[in-house]
Amino acid sequence: MNDTSTTILFVGHFNDHSIGKPFQQQTELFRLFNMYNFHQVIQSPTRCANILDWFVINNLHLEVLPPLRNLDISLIFLELDLKFCTDFLSSIKCWDYSRADFKKLNEILLIAPWEDIIAASPTPDVALNNITDIINQRASTCIPFRILESKKSTSVDAKAWINLNLKKMIHKRRRLFAKWRRTQCRHHRLAYNRLRNKIQRYIKDRKNRYIQFVLSKLDSLSTSRPNFWKTVKDLLGKRSYSNAPLICGDTVQYDMTSKANIFNEYFTSISTALDSILSKMLNRFHMCTDLFIPPLSIEPLDVYHVLLSLNPNKSKGFDNLPNRLLKNCAQSLATPFSLLFNFILATSHFPTAWNIASVITLHKSGSLHDVKNYRPISILPSLSKVFEKLIHKHLYSYFETNNLLCNRNSGFRKYHSTTSNILEVTHKLLVAKDSGCSSRVVFLDISKAFDKVIHSALLFKLQKPKFLPLQIIHLFILHYDSATKH
Fold this sequence. Notes:
The protein is mainly alpha-helical and about 475 residues long. It is built from 16 helices and eleven strands. The model is unreliable at about 85-90, about 150-155 and about 270-275 (pLDDT under 50).
């Protein structure tokens, strides 16, 4: 809308009586037209004393011609240079894993001089780039490429029960309907009715089969939590993606670049707490243990197990190392990755490339035009997540072994879930009831909880106790400072 070279028009059959007084009505539509400087360019009557049709446009003039012969409708002459958008087509170059020779690739990667590459790299950034380039170059010799053509689907194509056979029948039904309208033949009408009824029965049958299939998936005990909610959303027809314009102040943004800048400014400006309140809270923090964690060293066997646990269907990040490649080459990549991770710990330098993420936005609730109603999802580099899992495994096992975690904390812990908290609360309520006591429960639901995480407080707690290795503390601080700048 901010591009003055773009021509936008509104047309419609309104039979307007207000000749020479365009947009005087106090309606939302007229206010929108006035806001963006749209004009009703037809000022002469096009039928009797009225303007039969509206032609509202932002940067074009047209001419109203006299009526032809005995008609009471005038002709409108204009020239438009329109660009019609077809379905969005894009080609993606990717590896064809079905024809990959991973056995040969592992053999090639095993003989690479990884130790010399790490030793010759002055910084972890250089080492990461060298390792990534070598993996991609040698993978290209063992994994052929293929071109994927993606087509933007319509709402009909998005339905799971729509198949190629049904699309052909729908297309044939449209042709029969057009033939009947053109010929008014009774036989064509009967053929159209028969095909229409057949399609309705076919859709009903396909839809019932799909619903039964979805219900069987939901009843399956092996269905994981992400797959469960994905199945539910597919069944309900809910889509997280939205290409709606964003309203920022008095302007409406349509183009992708402007919308991306608005999202970026909002997501990076979210405040978590006032500094004055935060300082008072942090000063009351006390140590809960005299223990300390010894310096961390990552072994190739630990890297190997983490690589095998990767989900091959996850998207790759900016490091251009897909999970499927890392998982299939875990045996040959465990050693070079362990050398790289130990180099990072020794220098306490988090690679700059790992601070870059591909961010997508998901609509939560409310208006689609308000940036506050979206939450970001970051697609991180795969190798950075492997490194973070190794750090988490080391710290978590130490906390669990020394009982440093609160027993009432069930979030993000193995063998714990919301069921643990429900059982504890239910037990206390039943004990109070048996004792003849009354119970009072206060439930807190924090809106946008992850936006309210106090990162500076987490860093403060990491530095306050001396049981964390300095290499990990410095790594976290440098990673946080670098990530916030991006």
